[in-house]
UniProtKB/TrEMBL annotation:
InterPro entries found in the cross-reference section: Cyt_b/b6_C, Cyt_b/b6_C_sf, Cytb/b6-like_sf
Cytochrome b/b6 C-terminal region profile domain residues: 1-36
Source species: Mimus polyglottos
UniProt-recorded name of the protein: Cytochrome b
Membrane-spanning residues: 12-31
Amino acid sequence: HTSKLRSMTFRPISQILFWTLVANLLILTWVGSQPV
């Protein structure tokens, strides 16, 4: 499992995709919690 995780960290594209997904989730939950 650790070798898979290590190969992920060395892959910039997958890192960018991962953090983009995380950021989208955070923004969506924040916008959803706003009383509009």
